[in-house]
Amino acid sequence: MRIGLGWIPFSFGDFIYLLLILLLIKWIIKLIAKILYFIKNKNSVNNSILKGTIGNQVAKILITLNVILFYFHMAWGFNYYRLPMHEILEIEEDYSTEQLLEVTKDFIELSNNLHESIQDNDSLKVDFGNDQMVWMNMAPMAFENYHLNNTRIKYSNVSLKKSLLTVPLTYMGYSGYLNPLTGEAQINGWINAYKTPVLCLHEMAHQLGFAKENEANFIAIDAGLKHPDRHFQYSASLYALKFCLNDLYLRDPEKYAVVAKEIKPGIFKNYQELRDFWKPYQDGLVEKVSHSVYDSYLKVNNQPKGIDTYNYVVALLVNYY
Description:
Blueprint: H1 2-5, H2 12-40, H3 47-75, H4 85-88, H5 97-118, H6 132-138, E1 147-148, E2 151-152, E3 160-162, H7 166-172, E4 176-178, E5 185-187, H8 195-207, H9 213-225, H10 230-251, H11 253-260, H12 265-278, H13 285-300, H14 312-320
Parallel strand pairs: 3-5
Antiparallel strand pairs: 1-2, 4-5
Helix pairs in contact: 2-3, 5-10, 5-14, 8-9, 8-10, 9-10, 9-14, 10-11
Organism: Nonlabens tegetincola
Transmembrane segments: 15-37, 58-78
Keywords: Membrane, Transmembrane, Transmembrane helix
């Protein structure tokens, strides 16, 4: 559907979600009102009428949910069952700590070089400005001549938008999402940090059919590194480096401590900037519930490890690069 919705300047999918939420609230209010009416007039109203009324309302909801679920799978859901990325790339799924260490060093060197090419002062972060639209407009350039393992991957019909649901997205801890019903890529409108360019590419990777989060991360990194703009390259390199550093720390804290000293202070400030953004919204009830729900969603959709599946991107990075 993004073919017909990309030209709309606002998120049509978010508008539909808001409408559905309002309709759901209306339905709940009407149902409660009917139940209260029957309770108040229980002596004069047949119980079978009450049961029939509630049953009809529940049946309507179940039918609606089934229609939405069917459409979800037809429009998007079956992408979760595609061949795993490491099989597409014909690379190994496992890797050693030494392999991880070497790739981490490579991304440190690349990140340092890119930082130096953009920012003269090693101790200052790379500034990504305050206008997300700059990066959203430049993002499609990453896929103009994009090849993955010598296979051309074409991206057309751009539909990348700021989410109308930025407030709830932020409190739930999400940077963006793909609306599976409309095909629109939604970006959290409050984030302006190093992650913004690669975030745009991540959601666009979903639009290309890479449903699994780890695979979308990998495509975003690979496409970002091949983008003609250095800010995109820097964003992708830092994103890849973050995954590698986190995994290296878990495997061998001592080796992590050694290589971390080679990273420019300005890069850590870019990381800190994003952490500072999320800090006020972390550990809240909304975030915990939403992450639990999303973890279950991933497990249902052919990602058995749920949110932990995100670490699979390290295996792709190590064995591909």
